[in-house]
Amino acid sequence: MAKPKFKFQMYKTLQANIPNIYADARKAADEIGIPKEIRGKFGLTGAISGCPAPLRDDIMKAGEDGAKEVIPLAKLVDDIREIVKSVYGDEYDAAPTSTCEAGLWVTFDSLFSPPALGRGDNYRSRYIALYEKHLHHQGAYGRPYPPRYKDILADRGTTAGELGFYGKRQNNLDTVIVPLAGARYDVHGIKYHPVPMLTDVDPEESLEMITNHAEVHLPFLAGFTGLGYETPGYGYAVKDEEGTPLLQKGLGELAHGYDLPYVIDNAWGLPFVGCNPLKTGADVIIYSMDKATGAATSGLIIGREDLMVPIRRALGMHGDRYGTTTSYGKAAYVTFDAGKEALLTQIQALKVLRDEPEVLTKPVDGLEKIVKEEFAQINLPSHLKNGIVISKSYNSTAVEVNYEKTWQGGELGIPIFSIEDMYAGTNIFQTGCAQMGIIPTVAYDGNIYISPGLGTCDSKGQLIEETMRYGIKGLVKLIEITCTYAGLRE
Protein backbone atom coordinates (compact mmCIF):
# COMPACT_ATOMS: atom_id res chain seq x y z
CA MET A 1 0.00 0.00 0.00
CA ALA A 2 1.51 3.34 -1.09
CA LYS A 3 2.15 5.86 1.67
CA PRO A 4 -0.13 8.91 1.28
CA LYS A 5 1.27 12.45 1.31
CA PHE A 6 -1.47 14.06 3.41
CA LYS A 7 -3.39 12.70 6.37
CA PHE A 8 -6.82 13.21 4.81
CA GLN A 9 -5.70 10.94 1.99
CA MET A 10 -4.75 8.28 4.53
CA TYR A 11 -8.21 8.38 6.09
CA LYS A 12 -9.83 8.32 2.64
CA THR A 13 -7.84 5.17 1.83
CA LEU A 14 -8.85 3.58 5.13
CA GLN A 15 -12.51 4.31 4.44
CA ALA A 16 -12.25 2.66 1.02
CA ASN A 17 -10.61 -0.41 2.57
CA ILE A 18 -12.91 -0.98 5.55
CA PRO A 19 -14.26 -4.24 4.05
CA ASN A 20 -10.71 -5.50 3.53
CA ILE A 21 -9.68 -4.50 7.05
CA TYR A 22 -12.68 -6.32 8.48
CA ALA A 23 -11.88 -9.44 6.46
CA ASP A 24 -8.27 -9.39 7.66
CA ALA A 25 -9.45 -8.83 11.26
CA ARG A 26 -11.71 -11.89 11.13
CA LYS A 27 -8.85 -13.93 9.70
CA ALA A 28 -6.50 -12.63 12.42
CA ALA A 29 -8.95 -13.72 15.14
CA ASP A 30 -8.66 -17.27 13.83
CA GLU A 31 -4.86 -17.04 13.65
CA ILE A 32 -4.65 -15.75 17.22
CA GLY A 33 -6.86 -18.61 18.26
CA ILE A 34 -9.63 -16.68 19.98
CA PRO A 35 -12.04 -19.46 21.02
CA LYS A 36 -15.32 -19.34 19.11
CA GLU A 37 -17.31 -19.83 22.29
CA ILE A 38 -16.11 -16.55 23.85
CA ARG A 39 -16.35 -14.34 20.76
CA GLY A 40 -18.81 -11.55 21.33
CA LYS A 41 -18.83 -12.35 25.05
CA PHE A 42 -15.64 -10.65 26.20
CA GLY A 43 -14.01 -7.30 25.59
CA LEU A 44 -11.48 -4.63 26.35
CA THR A 45 -13.50 -2.90 29.03
CA GLY A 46 -16.40 -3.49 31.35
CA ALA A 47 -16.76 0.26 31.85
CA ILE A 48 -18.95 1.21 28.88
CA SER A 49 -22.54 2.06 29.76
CA GLY A 50 -23.95 0.17 26.78
CA CYS A 51 -22.28 -3.08 27.81
CA PRO A 52 -21.41 -3.12 31.53
CA ALA A 53 -19.35 -5.84 33.14
CA PRO A 54 -20.99 -8.73 35.00
CA LEU A 55 -21.38 -8.04 38.70
CA ARG A 56 -19.03 -9.64 41.23
CA ASP A 57 -20.38 -12.26 43.61
CA ASP A 58 -20.29 -9.92 46.60
CA ILE A 59 -22.13 -7.20 44.69
CA MET A 60 -24.77 -9.67 43.50
CA LYS A 61 -25.25 -11.06 47.00
CA ALA A 62 -25.72 -7.60 48.49
CA GLY A 63 -28.36 -6.76 45.91
CA GLU A 64 -30.20 -10.06 46.19
CA ASP A 65 -30.17 -10.27 49.99
CA GLY A 66 -31.34 -6.69 50.45
CA ALA A 67 -33.99 -7.03 47.76
CA LYS A 68 -35.75 -9.60 49.95
CA GLU A 69 -35.88 -7.25 52.93
CA VAL A 70 -38.11 -4.32 53.76
CA ILE A 71 -35.74 -1.35 53.79
CA PRO A 72 -36.69 2.34 53.43
CA LEU A 73 -34.67 3.82 50.57
CA ALA A 74 -33.83 6.86 52.67
CA LYS A 75 -31.98 4.52 55.04
CA LEU A 76 -29.88 3.12 52.16
CA VAL A 77 -29.00 6.64 51.05
CA ASP A 78 -27.94 7.45 54.60
CA ASP A 79 -25.78 4.31 54.65
CA ILE A 80 -23.98 5.62 51.55
CA ARG A 81 -23.55 9.02 53.20
CA GLU A 82 -22.07 7.38 56.29
CA ILE A 83 -19.47 5.44 54.28
CA VAL A 84 -18.46 8.57 52.33
CA LYS A 85 -18.12 10.60 55.52
CA SER A 86 -16.03 7.84 57.11
CA VAL A 87 -13.44 8.40 54.35
CA TYR A 88 -13.60 12.10 53.49
CA GLY A 89 -14.88 13.56 56.75
CA ASP A 90 -18.11 15.01 58.06
CA GLU A 91 -17.87 18.08 55.83
CA TYR A 92 -18.62 15.91 52.78
CA ASP A 93 -21.95 14.44 51.75
CA ALA A 94 -23.31 12.18 49.01
CA ALA A 95 -26.33 11.57 46.81
CA PRO A 96 -26.87 8.54 44.57
CA THR A 97 -28.45 8.94 41.14
CA SER A 98 -29.69 6.68 38.37
CA THR A 99 -26.63 7.38 36.16
CA CYS A 100 -23.52 9.54 36.13
CA GLU A 101 -25.07 11.74 33.45
CA ALA A 102 -28.02 12.29 35.76
CA GLY A 103 -25.55 13.36 38.42
CA LEU A 104 -23.94 15.84 36.05
CA TRP A 105 -27.29 17.21 35.00
CA VAL A 106 -28.63 17.88 38.49
CA THR A 107 -25.27 19.25 39.67
CA PHE A 108 -24.90 21.74 36.84
CA ASP A 109 -28.51 22.83 37.14
CA SER A 110 -28.24 23.22 40.92
CA LEU A 111 -24.89 25.04 40.98
CA PHE A 112 -24.42 26.75 37.60
CA SER A 113 -27.80 27.56 36.03
CA PRO A 114 -29.54 30.89 36.83
CA PRO A 115 -32.79 30.71 38.81
CA ALA A 116 -35.93 30.13 36.78
CA LEU A 117 -38.21 31.84 39.31
CA GLY A 118 -38.63 35.56 39.86
CA ARG A 119 -40.19 38.52 38.05
CA GLY A 120 -38.53 39.96 34.97
CA ASP A 121 -36.06 38.43 32.55
CA ASN A 122 -33.57 35.89 33.84
CA TYR A 123 -29.89 36.70 33.86
CA ARG A 124 -27.31 34.45 32.18
CA SER A 125 -24.46 32.61 33.85
CA ARG A 126 -21.36 30.82 32.55
CA TYR A 127 -19.07 28.02 33.58
CA ILE A 128 -15.58 27.23 32.36
CA ALA A 129 -14.96 23.82 30.80
CA LEU A 130 -11.53 22.68 29.67
CA TYR A 131 -11.25 21.73 26.00
CA GLU A 132 -10.49 18.10 26.73
CA LYS A 133 -11.78 14.66 25.87
CA HIS A 134 -15.44 13.70 26.40
CA LEU A 135 -16.49 17.35 26.16
CA HIS A 136 -20.03 16.24 25.31
CA HIS A 137 -20.45 15.23 28.96
CA GLN A 138 -18.99 17.91 31.22
CA GLY A 139 -18.99 20.71 28.61
CA ALA A 140 -22.40 20.29 26.98
CA TYR A 141 -24.76 21.88 29.49
CA GLY A 142 -24.51 25.44 28.17
CA ARG A 143 -24.28 27.22 24.84
CA PRO A 144 -20.63 27.10 23.72
CA TYR A 145 -18.46 30.23 23.88
CA PRO A 146 -16.51 31.51 21.96
CA PRO A 147 -18.71 31.18 18.85
CA ARG A 148 -16.20 29.08 16.91
CA TYR A 149 -17.19 26.17 19.17
CA LYS A 150 -20.93 26.53 18.62
CA ASP A 151 -21.13 23.41 16.45
CA ILE A 152 -18.55 21.36 18.34
CA LEU A 153 -21.17 18.86 19.55
CA ALA A 154 -23.14 18.66 16.30
CA ASP A 155 -22.25 15.07 15.41
CA ARG A 156 -21.33 13.83 18.86
CA GLY A 157 -24.22 11.52 19.53
CA THR A 158 -26.72 9.16 17.96
CA THR A 159 -29.48 11.76 17.74
CA ALA A 160 -29.21 15.28 16.33
CA GLY A 161 -30.83 18.58 17.30
CA GLU A 162 -33.00 19.16 20.34
CA LEU A 163 -33.20 15.46 21.17
CA GLY A 164 -29.42 15.03 21.03
CA PHE A 165 -26.66 16.76 22.97
CA TYR A 166 -28.00 20.18 22.04
CA GLY A 167 -31.06 19.35 24.14
CA LYS A 168 -28.93 19.10 27.29
CA ARG A 169 -28.24 22.83 27.30
CA GLN A 170 -29.73 24.44 30.36
CA ASN A 171 -31.68 27.64 30.55
CA ASN A 172 -29.57 30.82 30.18
CA LEU A 173 -26.31 28.93 30.75
CA ASP A 174 -23.15 29.32 28.65
CA THR A 175 -20.07 27.10 28.51
CA VAL A 176 -16.75 28.92 28.13
CA ILE A 177 -14.48 26.40 26.43
CA VAL A 178 -10.78 26.95 27.18
CA PRO A 179 -8.05 25.16 25.18
CA LEU A 180 -5.09 23.85 27.17
CA ALA A 181 -1.51 25.03 26.74
CA GLY A 182 0.63 22.40 25.06
CA ALA A 183 -2.39 20.53 23.73
CA ARG A 184 -2.93 19.91 20.05
CA TYR A 185 -6.32 19.93 18.37
CA ASP A 186 -5.38 18.62 14.94
CA VAL A 187 -8.05 17.31 12.58
CA HIS A 188 -8.16 13.52 12.21
CA GLY A 189 -10.43 10.62 11.38
CA ILE A 190 -12.61 9.29 8.61
CA LYS A 191 -15.28 11.55 10.14
CA TYR A 192 -12.77 14.39 9.98
CA HIS A 193 -12.85 16.48 13.15
CA PRO A 194 -10.48 18.22 15.62
CA VAL A 195 -9.32 15.83 18.34
CA PRO A 196 -7.88 16.80 21.75
CA MET A 197 -4.34 15.42 22.06
CA LEU A 198 -3.21 16.20 25.57
CA THR A 199 0.00 14.37 26.48
CA ASP A 200 2.05 17.59 26.42
CA VAL A 201 -0.33 19.78 28.41
CA ASP A 202 1.52 22.35 30.53
CA PRO A 203 -0.53 22.77 33.74
CA GLU A 204 1.09 26.02 34.85
CA GLU A 205 0.61 27.79 31.54
CA SER A 206 -2.86 26.29 31.16
CA LEU A 207 -3.90 27.68 34.54
CA GLU A 208 -2.72 31.12 33.44
CA MET A 209 -4.89 30.85 30.34
CA ILE A 210 -7.86 29.67 32.39
CA THR A 211 -7.37 32.57 34.81
CA ASN A 212 -7.38 35.03 31.91
CA HIS A 213 -10.67 33.64 30.66
CA ALA A 214 -12.11 33.69 34.18
CA GLU A 215 -11.26 37.38 34.55
CA VAL A 216 -13.02 38.20 31.27
CA HIS A 217 -16.19 36.35 32.26
CA LEU A 218 -16.08 36.94 36.02
CA PRO A 219 -19.33 38.98 36.30
CA PHE A 220 -21.23 35.98 34.90
CA LEU A 221 -19.04 33.13 36.14
CA ALA A 222 -20.67 30.31 38.14
CA GLY A 223 -17.93 27.66 38.33
CA PHE A 224 -15.31 25.43 36.74
CA THR A 225 -15.41 21.86 35.52
CA GLY A 226 -13.00 19.22 34.22
CA LEU A 227 -12.30 15.50 34.24
CA GLY A 228 -10.99 13.52 37.22
CA TYR A 229 -8.62 11.23 35.32
CA GLU A 230 -4.88 11.13 35.97
CA THR A 231 -3.22 9.75 32.83
CA PRO A 232 -1.09 11.53 30.18
CA GLY A 233 -3.64 11.00 27.41
CA TYR A 234 -6.17 13.04 29.35
CA GLY A 235 -3.73 15.89 30.01
CA TYR A 236 -2.96 15.09 33.63
CA ALA A 237 0.56 13.68 33.42
CA VAL A 238 2.25 16.34 35.58
CA LYS A 239 1.66 15.58 39.27
CA ASP A 240 2.83 16.59 42.70
CA GLU A 241 4.77 14.31 45.06
CA GLU A 242 1.51 12.67 46.21
CA GLY A 243 0.43 11.87 42.65
CA THR A 244 -2.22 14.58 42.39
CA PRO A 245 -2.38 16.16 38.91
CA LEU A 246 -1.23 19.78 39.13
CA LEU A 247 -3.90 20.93 36.70
CA GLN A 248 -6.70 19.57 38.90
CA LYS A 249 -5.09 20.94 42.03
CA GLY A 250 -4.63 24.35 40.40
CA LEU A 251 -8.23 24.45 39.21
CA GLY A 252 -9.39 23.80 42.76
CA GLU A 253 -7.27 26.66 44.07
CA LEU A 254 -8.44 28.97 41.28
CA ALA A 255 -12.09 28.20 41.89
CA HIS A 256 -11.77 28.73 45.63
CA GLY A 257 -10.03 32.05 45.00
CA TYR A 258 -13.21 33.23 43.28
CA ASP A 259 -15.46 31.45 45.82
CA LEU A 260 -16.90 29.34 43.00
CA PRO A 261 -17.42 25.56 42.83
CA TYR A 262 -15.04 23.20 41.03
CA VAL A 263 -16.98 20.21 39.69
CA ILE A 264 -15.16 17.10 38.50
CA ASP A 265 -16.64 14.55 36.12
CA ASN A 266 -14.99 11.30 37.20
CA ALA A 267 -17.41 8.94 35.47
CA TRP A 268 -14.78 6.29 34.78
CA GLY A 269 -13.24 6.61 38.22
CA LEU A 270 -13.23 5.18 41.73
CA PRO A 271 -14.36 6.88 44.91
CA PHE A 272 -11.77 6.74 47.71
CA VAL A 273 -9.04 5.06 45.61
CA GLY A 274 -9.08 7.54 42.72
CA CYS A 275 -9.40 11.31 42.36
CA ASN A 276 -9.40 12.68 45.92
CA PRO A 277 -11.36 15.88 46.67
CA LEU A 278 -9.19 16.48 49.72
CA LYS A 279 -6.14 16.72 47.43
CA THR A 280 -7.55 18.19 44.22
CA GLY A 281 -9.77 20.72 45.94
CA ALA A 282 -12.81 19.49 44.02
CA ASP A 283 -16.05 20.67 45.58
CA VAL A 284 -18.20 18.06 43.83
CA ILE A 285 -17.22 14.81 42.07
CA ILE A 286 -19.64 12.72 40.01
CA TYR A 287 -19.13 8.98 39.38
CA SER A 288 -20.63 6.30 37.19
CA MET A 289 -20.81 3.53 39.74
CA ASP A 290 -21.20 0.74 37.19
CA LYS A 291 -17.98 1.57 35.32
CA ALA A 292 -14.79 1.21 37.37
CA THR A 293 -16.51 0.70 40.72
CA GLY A 294 -18.49 -2.41 39.80
CA ALA A 295 -21.90 -1.58 41.28
CA ALA A 296 -25.15 -1.96 39.39
CA THR A 297 -25.95 0.76 36.85
CA SER A 298 -26.15 4.02 38.80
CA GLY A 299 -24.32 7.25 39.59
CA LEU A 300 -23.03 8.93 42.73
CA ILE A 301 -22.41 12.56 43.64
CA ILE A 302 -19.92 13.33 46.41
CA GLY A 303 -19.29 16.89 47.51
CA ARG A 304 -18.99 19.50 50.20
CA GLU A 305 -22.03 19.59 52.43
CA ASP A 306 -22.98 23.19 51.66
CA LEU A 307 -23.07 22.48 47.92
CA MET A 308 -24.77 19.13 48.36
CA VAL A 309 -27.73 20.79 50.08
CA PRO A 310 -29.25 22.23 46.87
CA ILE A 311 -28.32 19.08 44.93
CA ARG A 312 -30.01 16.83 47.48
CA ARG A 313 -33.02 19.19 47.55
CA ALA A 314 -33.33 18.85 43.78
CA LEU A 315 -33.26 15.06 44.13
CA GLY A 316 -35.83 15.02 46.95
CA MET A 317 -33.33 13.61 49.45
CA HIS A 318 -32.66 16.57 51.71
CA GLY A 319 -35.61 16.08 54.06
CA ASP A 320 -39.34 16.66 54.23
CA ARG A 321 -40.80 20.17 54.38
CA TYR A 322 -42.17 19.57 57.86
CA GLY A 323 -38.64 18.98 59.11
CA THR A 324 -36.73 15.70 58.81
CA THR A 325 -33.04 15.01 58.36
CA THR A 326 -33.51 12.98 55.18
CA SER A 327 -36.12 11.87 52.68
CA TYR A 328 -36.65 9.93 49.49
CA GLY A 329 -39.44 11.96 47.97
CA LYS A 330 -40.56 14.17 45.11
CA ALA A 331 -38.56 17.07 43.69
CA ALA A 332 -37.43 18.49 40.38
CA TYR A 333 -35.07 15.61 39.67
CA VAL A 334 -36.94 12.67 41.18
CA THR A 335 -36.63 11.16 37.70
CA PHE A 336 -32.95 10.58 38.51
CA ASP A 337 -33.65 8.36 41.54
CA ALA A 338 -31.53 5.24 41.86
CA GLY A 339 -33.49 2.05 42.55
CA LYS A 340 -33.26 -0.09 45.66
CA GLU A 341 -31.01 -2.77 44.16
CA ALA A 342 -28.62 -0.14 42.77
CA LEU A 343 -28.36 1.47 46.22
CA LEU A 344 -27.62 -1.89 47.83
CA THR A 345 -24.82 -2.60 45.36
CA GLN A 346 -23.37 0.89 45.80
CA ILE A 347 -23.11 0.31 49.54
CA GLN A 348 -21.24 -2.96 49.02
CA ALA A 349 -18.95 -1.47 46.35
CA LEU A 350 -18.07 1.49 48.57
CA LYS A 351 -17.30 -0.78 51.51
CA VAL A 352 -14.89 -2.80 49.38
CA LEU A 353 -13.21 0.35 48.05
CA ARG A 354 -12.76 1.61 51.60
CA ASP A 355 -11.67 -1.65 53.23
CA GLU A 356 -10.26 -3.88 50.45
CA PRO A 357 -9.19 -1.68 47.52
CA GLU A 358 -6.83 -4.39 46.25
CA VAL A 359 -9.89 -6.24 44.93
CA LEU A 360 -10.03 -3.58 42.22
CA THR A 361 -6.37 -2.56 41.93
CA LYS A 362 -4.80 -6.02 41.66
CA PRO A 363 -6.40 -6.83 38.28
CA VAL A 364 -5.02 -3.55 36.92
CA ASP A 365 -1.49 -4.66 37.75
CA GLY A 366 -2.03 -7.90 35.87
CA LEU A 367 -3.55 -6.09 32.90
CA GLU A 368 -0.64 -3.65 32.72
CA LYS A 369 1.79 -6.55 32.48
CA ILE A 370 -0.14 -8.15 29.61
CA VAL A 371 -0.51 -4.87 27.70
CA LYS A 372 3.20 -4.09 27.94
CA GLU A 373 4.18 -7.60 26.87
CA GLU A 374 1.89 -7.69 23.83
CA PHE A 375 2.61 -4.15 22.64
CA ALA A 376 6.34 -4.84 22.94
CA GLN A 377 5.83 -7.31 20.09
CA ILE A 378 3.81 -5.02 17.80
CA ASN A 379 5.09 -5.21 14.22
CA LEU A 380 5.44 -1.55 13.31
CA PRO A 381 8.30 0.69 12.14
CA SER A 382 10.40 1.81 15.10
CA HIS A 383 9.27 5.45 15.02
CA LEU A 384 5.67 4.27 15.40
CA LYS A 385 6.41 1.65 18.02
CA ASN A 386 8.46 4.12 20.08
CA GLY A 387 5.61 6.64 20.01
CA ILE A 388 3.29 4.37 21.99
CA VAL A 389 3.06 5.32 25.68
CA ILE A 390 1.48 2.91 28.19
CA SER A 391 0.24 4.16 31.58
CA LYS A 392 -1.62 2.58 34.49
CA SER A 393 -4.61 4.14 36.21
CA TYR A 394 -5.97 2.89 39.51
CA ASN A 395 -8.55 5.69 39.39
CA SER A 396 -10.12 4.16 36.27
CA THR A 397 -8.95 0.59 36.92
CA ALA A 398 -7.49 0.89 33.43
CA VAL A 399 -4.36 0.84 31.33
CA GLU A 400 -3.98 3.67 28.84
CA VAL A 401 -2.34 3.14 25.46
CA ASN A 402 -1.60 6.55 23.95
CA TYR A 403 -0.06 6.97 20.50
CA GLU A 404 -0.19 10.72 19.84
CA LYS A 405 3.59 10.84 19.67
CA THR A 406 3.64 8.60 16.60
CA TRP A 407 2.71 11.80 14.73
CA GLN A 408 5.76 13.78 15.83
CA GLY A 409 8.17 15.33 13.34
CA GLY A 410 5.58 15.90 10.65
CA GLU A 411 5.33 12.17 9.91
CA LEU A 412 2.06 10.31 9.45
CA GLY A 413 1.40 8.21 12.55
CA ILE A 414 -0.95 5.48 13.69
CA PRO A 415 -4.43 6.54 12.49
CA ILE A 416 -6.33 8.65 14.99
CA PHE A 417 -10.10 8.30 14.97
CA SER A 418 -12.29 11.09 16.29
CA ILE A 419 -15.16 10.55 18.69
CA GLU A 420 -17.39 11.46 15.75
CA ASP A 421 -16.01 8.33 14.07
CA MET A 422 -17.38 6.31 16.96
CA TYR A 423 -20.89 7.64 16.43
CA ALA A 424 -20.57 7.37 12.63
CA GLY A 425 -19.43 3.74 12.86
CA THR A 426 -16.10 4.53 11.19
CA ASN A 427 -13.77 4.11 14.16
CA ILE A 428 -11.88 1.08 12.86
CA PHE A 429 -10.19 0.41 16.22
CA GLN A 430 -13.68 -0.18 17.63
CA THR A 431 -15.61 -1.69 14.74
CA GLY A 432 -12.63 -3.84 13.76
CA CYS A 433 -12.50 -5.35 17.25
CA ALA A 434 -16.14 -6.32 16.90
CA GLN A 435 -15.25 -8.22 13.72
CA MET A 436 -12.84 -10.28 15.81
CA GLY A 437 -15.46 -11.08 18.42
CA ILE A 438 -13.91 -8.60 20.88
CA ILE A 439 -16.24 -6.02 22.42
CA PRO A 440 -14.35 -2.72 21.93
CA THR A 441 -13.40 0.02 24.37
CA VAL A 442 -12.96 3.80 24.33
CA ALA A 443 -10.41 4.14 21.54
CA TYR A 444 -10.42 7.58 19.98
CA ASP A 445 -8.40 10.82 20.00
CA GLY A 446 -5.15 8.84 19.76
CA ASN A 447 -5.91 7.21 23.10
CA ILE A 448 -7.09 3.72 24.07
CA TYR A 449 -8.39 2.93 27.55
CA ILE A 450 -8.43 -0.79 28.45
CA SER A 451 -9.84 -2.24 31.65
CA PRO A 452 -10.72 -5.67 33.04
CA GLY A 453 -14.18 -6.99 33.73
CA LEU A 454 -16.02 -7.77 30.51
CA GLY A 455 -15.67 -11.52 30.46
CA THR A 456 -12.04 -11.12 31.51
CA CYS A 457 -12.54 -11.44 35.28
CA ASP A 458 -13.87 -14.25 37.43
CA SER A 459 -16.85 -13.95 39.76
CA LYS A 460 -14.56 -12.52 42.46
CA GLY A 461 -13.41 -9.74 40.15
CA GLN A 462 -9.95 -11.15 39.54
CA LEU A 463 -8.30 -11.17 36.13
CA ILE A 464 -8.59 -14.17 33.80
CA GLU A 465 -5.24 -13.60 32.15
CA GLU A 466 -5.69 -15.92 29.16
CA THR A 467 -8.93 -14.28 28.05
CA MET A 468 -7.59 -10.78 28.63
CA ARG A 469 -4.52 -11.61 26.56
CA TYR A 470 -6.71 -12.69 23.64
CA GLY A 471 -8.26 -9.23 23.68
CA ILE A 472 -4.93 -7.41 23.74
CA LYS A 473 -3.48 -9.63 21.02
CA GLY A 474 -6.50 -8.86 18.86
CA LEU A 475 -6.13 -5.11 19.42
CA VAL A 476 -2.43 -5.21 18.55
CA LYS A 477 -3.12 -7.16 15.38
CA LEU A 478 -5.91 -4.77 14.39
CA ILE A 479 -3.55 -1.80 14.75
CA GLU A 480 -1.02 -3.58 12.52
CA ILE A 481 -3.66 -4.33 9.89
CA THR A 482 -4.96 -0.76 9.92
CA CYS A 483 -1.45 0.66 9.61
CA THR A 484 -0.83 -1.61 6.62
CA TYR A 485 -3.84 -0.19 4.75
CA ALA A 486 -2.82 3.33 5.84
CA GLY A 487 0.47 2.85 3.99
CA LEU A 488 2.56 2.92 7.16
CA ARG A 489 3.97 -0.62 6.92
CA GLU A 490 5.77 -2.45 4.17
Automatic annotation (TrEMBL):
InterPro entries: PyrdxlP-dep_Trfase (IPR015424), PyrdxlP-dep_Trfase_major (IPR015421). Gene3D superfamilies: Type I PLP-dependent aspartate aminotransferase-like (Major domain) (3.40.640.10). This is Uncharacterized protein.
